[in-house]
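hi! just following up on the protien thing from before. the input was this:
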Amino acid sequence: MRKEVVEVPPPDINIAMPEVGPSTTAITARVAEAPKAAAPAAKAAIAATAVGLGKGFPNVDDFYPDASRRLGEEGLTIVDICVGPDGKLTEAPKVGKTSGHERLDQAAVKVATLGSGRFKPATEEGKPVAKCTQLPIRFKLHS
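and the predicted 3d structure came back as:
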């Protein structure tokens, strides 16, 4: 067995090179551009805040129904509320999710209603705005 040698001609490669002026070996100096001035800092974005409970908001324990205490009823009621820029309710609160006990749900709505004017309104760009949210009210017996 004899290996046959095959000659493969080299490929034709054309590389386009930019034409340069007269050839020189002189060293040329390049002047660096002055750094650009930093762009003025954008105003820091003011984060939006959610509705909160303000000073003097009613204590939930003060509204725990006596019958529910005697029966050992506990639970979490989610109350749907809409608060205006003045911290007052813009519409009547309603039960969004029941605690499973009608008395506790009614007491939760009463707490939210009496809290009107004592809410911290939501803010956008630092300004109070109207916003609807859910207010969790937990009724828990203390031993």
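Strands lie at 52-53, 75-83, 94-97, 119-120, 122-124, 127-129, 131-139.
The first helix runs from residue 66 to 71.
cheers
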